[in-house]
Amino acid sequence: MHTLAQLQAGELHGVTRLQLAEGLTHFPAEIFSLADSLEILDLSNNALSELPDDLHRLHRLKVIFCSNNRFRQLPACLGQCAELEMIGFKSNRIETVPAEALPVQTRWLILTDNLIAALPERIGQLHRLQKLMLAGNCLTELPGSLSQCHQLQLLRISANRLPQFPDVVLDLPQLSWLAFSGNPFCAERQPHDAFPQVAADDLYHHEVLGQGASGVIRRASWRHNPHGCSEQVAIKVFKGDVTSDGYPLDELEACLSIGQHPNMVTPLARVTGELQEALVMELIPADYLNLGQPPSLASCTRDVFTAGQSFDIATISGFVEQMESVVAHLRQCGISHGDLYAHNVLVNPAGHLLFGDLGAASRYHHLVDYQRQGIERMEQRALHCFIEDMLGLCVEQDRHTELYRQLAARLG
Ligand SMILES: Nc1ncnc2c1ncn2[C@@H]1O[C@H](COP(=O)(O)OP(=O)(O)OP(=O)(O)O)[C@@H](O)[C@H]1O
């Protein structure tokens, strides 16, 4: 994080990345003094509603974040920025997306949590678009031209007003991660009356174990254990706000719909009588570690892995087998995960895998055959990316084994 004072004093000369969050109501003109170096501009968490028309003078600008501001329109000046590839305007009040605001070279467009009712057909000209985040808007349809975005791999359209499943997404040859829950065409959430319920004061809440976009997870133990669950459990208290994957309540709905599988964390009980929804689940032992890290700005739609991380081919084959088994289970439940990534996978030293994060899950059992098949093809593509990533982590001496060849052959 930088300060306006540093910028005005000329202390930031030569920086490639600038981050200012000081309640700004106007774009500070001093930013132009960084034009020869600035590549990433983060003006999130201010009170901006406009950007200067001559923003293109920042001629190296590749990434702009303006989340949590007061924009009502996506600024048209973005379209003039010759190098701009990533645009993030989450949680503004954007109603209008002018065609000219979208640079043709855009790879990653984030418009989550705005008031957008329609997107321009221009979107079809964004031939490099890989990631498109539209959850939490007022969309009633998607532009037909979206079918031209042949590079699109990840799409979020949850929590909108789509009256029917947008068939246009079925034509996207690379689409692998789709989330669409929380639209009028979606199946209604179920009461899940048969699912075990507990009262909030049945539990002691302990330390925070982690924090996802949709809620906070703590260790918990029982004051009163009506269903005879394990003594130590985890509790996720869901936040109310829409996330980039959709509504937290749709995540909860998916958790309550998946039953049990050895490679998923078992949901144990729902907490009733509280203002916020909460779910009690099995506590993941501390020796489980994340298999991958979420994509970087550069990798965009693909996970990144820790330098030096490697596995023998038998372990990798075990990961793939377990992952396939969960995907098949979810398919039987009529749920697409929508975020099948190694960063949502935990593994222990014995090679056991746990697949988590149902934030982007969508129920699709009620859709027609060709739509269901299209959705299953997408999840299959995500599985291929997972296999490809795992093979990339294979130790050198196992790269000529039969097992490696068999897995690689499945990628086609
Ligand atoms: N059952 C559990 N037992 C122990 N720790 C857990 C459990 N569930 C989640 N956690 C911890 O909490 C973190 C957040 O989990 P959660 O599934 O909500 O979000 P995420 O998938 O990591 O993030 P996001 O939803 O933002 O993509 C996990 O990375 C993990 O460290």
UniProtKB/TrEMBL annotation:
Pfam families: LRR_1, LRR_8, PK_Tyr_Ser-Thr
Limits of the Protein kinase domain: 203-412
Keyword Kinase: yes
Keyword ATP-binding: yes
Residues holding ATP: 236
Keywords annotated in UniProt: ATP-binding, Kinase, Leucine-rich repeat, Nucleotide-binding, Repeat, Transferase
Gene Ontology molecular function terms on file: kinase activity
Name of the protein this chain belongs to: Protein kinase
Species for this entry: Pokkaliibacter plantistimulans
